[in-house]
Amino acid sequence: MSSIIQLLPDHVANQIAAGEVVQRPASVVKELLENAVDAKATDIKLIIKDAGKSLVQVIDNGSGMSVTDARLCFERHATSKIRQAEDLFSLCTKGFRGEALASIAAIAHMEMKTKQDQEELGTHIIIEGSKFVSQEVAVLPKGTSFAVKNLFFNIPARRNFLKSDTVEFRHVMDEFQRVALAHPNIHFTFYHNGSEMYNLPAAGYRQRIVGIMSGKTNEKLVPVNEDTEIINIQGFVSKPEFAKKNRGEQFFFVNDRFIKSGYLHHAVMAAYDGLLKDGSQPSYFLYLQVPPNTIDINIHPTKTEIKFDDEQALYAILRASIKHSLGQFNVSPVLDFDRDANLDTPYHYKDLEGETPTIQVDGTFNPFTDDKTNQHYSKSGSGSGSVYSSGSGSGSYSGYNKRVEPTATWESLYVGLETDTIESSPFTFENEEEVTSSLFNDNEIEQASQGTYQIHKKYIVSPIKSGMVIVDQQRAHQRILYEQFLLNMTVNQASSQQLLFPLNLFYSSDEMILIEELKPSLETTGFVFEDAQTDHIVISGIPVNITESEVSMVIEQLLSDLQDGIPASSYSQNDTIAKSMAKSLAVKTGSYLTEKEQDNLVNGLFACKDPNISPFQKPTFITMRVEDIDKKFAL
């Protein structure tokens, strides 16, 4: 029987390997930028077109390659960083597998130009789908330039799976930010379709973070510094009042490599315990330095997850460091036992004793007698008839000498009141047995059957003919608002209320890209944008059913809901925006509603086209028939 197992051709094996290494243009950006960093470059330039689908080019001024290395770097498992297996446990560089360039060259048109500093001439190589087209000598500057064109040109199925340019550009932006944040000592420049997106000169950690995130990032940052035997922690965390709904600005770097770690993220959240609102996420930029032999970075294809030898110790140190920084800079509440100087006794009152006021009482005074002797009460308070006096005995009422006529006796207060008036007082009960014979009268029962009731500030109960309906107030309000927003965006022209003072809202660069694309859809809901800069927007008009204080919350929730990308079709965009705004503005569980508000909510729900479910496909109400209630009592 003939053998059926055979070795794959190199170009097929490279295409299969490319499926693990290159998933989208952002994967190419990551590999090329990390290679430039490993080449000890001090100036790196990234140029992309059509979100990287047409072109990804990285130019650096690093060490460059010789003619032999330039040809050999495109072979599989060819690397300059590994010599033996033990080297995997002492890695201090990025790319070490030797598969990146071979995988990229297998699925794109690739052009490389490289030259070493001591050489007079460089090497120019062109590859198309793993096939060497040409290799020649060229006059080049020091460093290396990789240009990747027409990604997935020979695998159309993979190219069809790519998202829109906006989504792919956001992924490219994320990879660029991660590399740039990890290496603030390198000058980075980023161009997209001929426009400069970033120009980041070499600086410190804080300047690099502010340069990338823009906005008012500088005032949000709280420094974190801790040096122990097993880990060195540097970086910044945000103040609790600047926490956001999304998890966009959260970065861990271990030995200058970006990683994702749910365990370390939990340590950060534990440090913020009691300082954040529900659902809020703090921003953090934390740089961890650990011995290379205590981590394993070879457990994930993209090398964004690593294994620590002692995770528990790192967890405790990280949480304590952040908690200490928040307390040190008076961000978190602390007990202060220092004496407040404002509460001290003034110096000139220090040795003085307080004076006790004297009280004189006339034991013979009777207000119910019409004795003429009581008239002395209206005279000067210095006499024996004074009810009280202060200080050394001089009456405080000495200037009040007007004669007051004696009042009538207390019996005269009730003269003229007839017996029948007293008997008809509302405080008398003639038929007490009839009042207490029934818990509710007929009118009260009839009124109660037509009303609504709120239970635990969460559900609204309303009687119906067959029993009762229980409405979830938050989901019901979401459905009402969702249909209102969708109607305004698709059929009606939404109304706007002009603001007396325009709102200035600051956002990061990637958030501004989302807002720019969402502007047409947001304007149909009633927002009026007066201006839009690189780091903030100016809003002069808002929808009529939104208050000025809710604008920031609505946009923040919208950006959080669109982290995975903006839908391509306009209807899907409108649907997403309507859902997000309904989620933000709907009445929350725990809110008290008046009886009128309850009635309006129930009536508004059943006036919707689809009152049964919320915009997020959850039931808005349930019904209980009288028969079902009877069965409960029959048990």
From TrEMBL:
It holds the Pfam family MutL_C. SMART domains: DNA_mis_repair, MutL_C. Residues 377-398 have a biased composition (Low complexity). Residues 360-398 are annotated as: Disordered. The keyword Zinc-finger does not apply. It comes from the Bacteria. Residues 209-327 form the DNA mismatch repair protein S5 domain. Transmembrane segments: none annotated. This protein is involved in the repair of mismatches in DNA. It is required for dam-dependent methyl-directed DNA mismatch repair. May act as a 'molecular matchmaker', a protein that promotes the formation of a stable complex between two or more DNA-binding proteins in an ATP-dependent manner without itself being part of a final effector complex. Belongs to the DNA mismatch repair MutL/HexB family. This is DNA mismatch repair protein MutL. It comes from Flavobacterium psychroterrae. The lineage of its organism: Bacteria, Pseudomonadati, Bacteroidota, Flavobacteriia, Flavobacteriales.
